[in-house]
Task: inverse folding
């Protein structure tokens, strides 16, 4: 069994879940790892705060100010989390 | 009947053999209670009228006798919570300047370190009947002095006159329909205005009062059964505990109660609804009041649509919402009426009273039907990018989750938004709730800017001697 593969799958699912929880209007077909903040209607500065707070709580991590600024898509959030765990 | 001492006297005259008071160790008829109070007063009459007598007792007949005797002798009863810290006790005594501190044997050790000039210290058991001249109070004399709990700032001395107390007692009895058929269970400290008001009401209507020192669910339910209790006064956490942990059989014991009264500015709706199902025909009620303005509103929960309100102003009491902008319907609650103190002790904090209006520091609003809603404290508002957020709104949303005992929202400095919400959470025993569950729930149920930016779990909160959370100590 490929445990790394399972871990990766689980992490991806967790990050996707954070996105769906932060953006309740987001539908599954519209989810795109590359889609950036500018392409979300409801990703304002407070949504960014909610997203970061929720990710920090779920993974028990803390992002620096620079890391927070760099998180502009699901992909960049995933990478930021990967670098912490 | 303009002084409190008449409550006992009149009930004794009407029904001397009726059981007045039951505590863990003793029972008193109205006649026996009045006799004990008279004996005790004979000793206290040696102190000049208007002397302050500090009382340090828990929920026992000793408290009731000492308190009523103090009042009968025209002195002012300074009521001290038994859980008081040493520093707070010293602070209160320095301010109150009592002539005597009276205590139960159990708490006498707390008085040993006090070094106050001319202060006499006595145990209840050391007081002997004497033959001093009889003194009586007048309606405008102060009856008791309670220091506010210091939830938001330094404790303030609140002296309450006989006239004010008589006014509030009549309001309680009339609104909640107390009568001499009632048997009232009191698992609350009488050193607090909620518990003290229950004592006054019971004496006023001539009912039987059952005092309970230990407010455990088991003790409360046992007493309800044993004494055929008809009214229960308890804080919301006690009632929530009864609902959460009582078995169906034990909860059925509530069905004979005609009244459950609590004192919360926010009483969780699920608890109210559950209590009502067990009570069958009885009333579930709350009130809004301060030590400075006892029982300013009453709310009897009849209409589910008003379940978050604290009700309408009591008879003879005016409440207005003071706003800076007249288009606002939310602002500071101001109260005027015979229940409001005329001055703080030693006329301090005069800025809190303006033309007989007490500025409560509480934020509230009225709905179109005249029901009052409490939204928090003026000082507790969280200013997020210019948006004013009431901590209670967030706390109410979070409290709905199971596994949470208590929650407090406070402002946390933020470089972009000025302030954001920080949440302190005390979990229930064995709760496994996580911050991400709370956040997800908040995101679903709150506007984005109100969602906490930080959640911290705590074992407990800093508290006042009355057990209230000191919010200001949580702020950075």
Result:
């Amino acid at each position: 069994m490929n445990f790394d593969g399972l871990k990766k799958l689980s992490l991806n699912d967790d990050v996707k879940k954070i996105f769906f929880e932060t953006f309740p209007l987001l539908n599954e077909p519209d989810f795109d790892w590359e889609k950036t903040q500018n392409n979300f209607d409801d990703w304002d500065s407070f949504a960014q705060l909610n997203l970061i707070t929720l990710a920090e709580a779920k993974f028990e991590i803390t992002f620096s100010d620079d890391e927070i600024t760099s998180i502009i898509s699901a992909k960049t959030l995933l990478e930021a989390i990967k670098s912490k765990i | 009947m303009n002084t409190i001492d008449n409550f006992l006297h009149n009930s004794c005259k009407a029904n001397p053999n009726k059981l007045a008071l039951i505590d863990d160790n003793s029972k008193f008829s109205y006649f026996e209670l009045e006799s004990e109070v008279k004996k005790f007063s004979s000793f206290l009459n040696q102190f000049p009228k208007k002397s302050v007598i500090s009382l340090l007792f828990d929920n026992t007949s000793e408290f009731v006798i000492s308190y009523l005797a103090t009042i009968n002798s025209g002195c002012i009863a300074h009521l001290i919570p038994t859980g008081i810290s040493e520093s707070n006790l010293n602070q209160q005594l320095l301010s109150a300047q009592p002539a005597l501190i009276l205590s139960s044997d159990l708490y006498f050790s707390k008085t040993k370190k006090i070094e106050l000039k001319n202060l006499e210290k006595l145990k209840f058991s050391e007081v002997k009947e004497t033959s001093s001249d009889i003194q009586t109070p007048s309606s405008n004399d102060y009856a008791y002095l309670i220091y506010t709990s210091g939830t938001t700032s330094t404790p303030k001395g609140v002296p309450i006159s006989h006239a004010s107390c008589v006014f509030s007692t009549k309001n309680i009895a009339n609104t909640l329909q107390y009568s001499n058929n009632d048997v009232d269970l009191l698992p609350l400290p009488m050193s607090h205005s909620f518990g003290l008001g229950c004592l006054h009401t019971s004496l006023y209507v001539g009912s039987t009062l059952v005092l309970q020192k230990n407010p455990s669910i088991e003790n409360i339910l046992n007493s309800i059964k044993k004494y055929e209790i008809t009214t229960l006064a308890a804080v919301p956490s006690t009632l929530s505990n009864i609902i959460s942990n009582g078995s169906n059989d034990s909860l059925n014991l509530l069905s004979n109660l005609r009244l459950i009264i609590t004192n919360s500015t926010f009483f969780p709706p699920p608890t109210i609804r559950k209590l009502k199902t067990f009570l069958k025909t009885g009333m579930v009620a709350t009130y809004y009041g301060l030590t400075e303005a006892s029982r300013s509103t009453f709310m009897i929960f009849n209409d589910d649509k008003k379940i978050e309100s604290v009700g309408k102003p009591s008879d003879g009491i005016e409440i207005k919402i003071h706003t800076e902008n007249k288009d606002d319907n939310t602002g500071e609650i101001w109260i005027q009426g015979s229940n409001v103190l005329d001055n703080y002790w030693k006329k301090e904090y005069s800025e809190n009273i303006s033309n007989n209006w007490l500025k409560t520091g509480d934020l509230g609003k009225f709905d179109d039907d005249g029901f009052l809603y409490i939204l928090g404290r003026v000082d507790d508002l969280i200013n997020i990018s210019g948006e004013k957020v009431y901590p209670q709104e967030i706390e109410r949303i979070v409290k709905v989750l199971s596994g949470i005992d208590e929650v407090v929202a406070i402002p946390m400095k933020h470089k972009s938004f000025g302030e954001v919400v920080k949440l302190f959470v005390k979990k229930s025993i064995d709760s496994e709730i996580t911050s991400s569950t709370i956040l997800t729930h908040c995101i679903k149920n709150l506007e984005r800017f109100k969602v906490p930016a930080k959640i911290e779990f705590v074992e407990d909160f800093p508290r006042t001697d009355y057990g209230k959370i000191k919010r200001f100590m949580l702020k950075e």
